Amino acid sequence: MAKLFINKDIAPDSDKAKYWLSGEDSISFTDIQYFMDWMDRNDNRIDVEIHSCGGDCVEGYAIYDALRASGKEISCKVVGTCASMATVILLAAPLERRTAYAHSSLCIHDPYGDGALLKGKVTPERLESIAADLRAEKQKMLDLYVERTGQNRDVLETQMATDSWFGPEKAIELGFISSIVPAISAKKEENIINPKTNIMSKKEVKVESTLLSRLLRKCGYAKIEDVPAVGMVITTSTGEELNVEREEGDIQVGDPASPDGEFVLEDGRTVVVQEGVITEIREPGSEDEDVEALKARIDELESEVADLKSNAKTEDEIKVLDAVAKAGGIEKLTKAAASKYIPAGRTTTYGNKPETKHASKIEQKLDEIREKRKGGKR
Fold this sequence. Notes:
This protein is of the alpha/beta class. It folds into three domains: 2-218, 2-enoyl-CoA Hydratase, Chain A, domain 1, CATH 3.90.226; 232-282, no CATH class; 347-377, no CATH class. The protein contains twelve helices and 17 strands.
């Protein structure tokens, strides 16, 4: 259901600038067109609230015709004042869907023209033409009133001639509305009903006036419970938000969720989300199991620390290793220290005991060759 507020003077677009300069505003047929174009095409209801003293006849009839030709279910309610052309717009709804608040006021009167019609030359012929136009406008308005209210023409014409305001009770008698809307805080009570509408003599009418209620009605819902849930947001133990696409009930494996990851809920359960789906829900373990797991982890870490300490090196050891690396590595140093060559016949004496170092096999062979050569020279 769409809500349409007609709460300004009714005027053509050409007069809007004049209203703006005066600090006021107006509503035109174009505004109503924009409103109906904005509506959802599947929305088949327009609820009109009227608080206007009327205005331009041409614009008023255009709005009346547009509402009736829309094919929508039209409801009209007088919420403050409803006078002149605003009463014509009120009649766009059928009698059973025309209501008014208890302290509203209505007024119907003969059409009249402003002083602009008399600018320029005033002749009897011109005055007669203006009067004829006003009489024709009056008959047009009376015809519409009679058709839409079902009231006697003479009664309506007499009321128009008085040019006076009347309340909702009188509006019911004249056929402009069917019932008076009671205060929302009132208990069940008998409403004043127009007998022509064939409505039950007792009826409780509840008016939802809060912003939430108006938004719900605009979206097509009667109460907040009718709005379908599209998902739930779960706050984890660390304050993160886990979005789960589930209307009601507890979350389950297979529910679409985001973001991916592992989350610990406030009740201790662990939820695992992979590729946008809950793949695992782990129940919380006992406190004893948690303590044992922590102790095992502590023992494991202490063992690692002990191994690291046993393999640790002093600063001197680190310096030695650096020197070995600069010298070409342990293999190069090993080769350099592996020579066992000892010159023949060289001895090393420690105290009184001479120590003779044996020559190598090569040296022994050389000595034999030398001895043979010496023998040959003899």
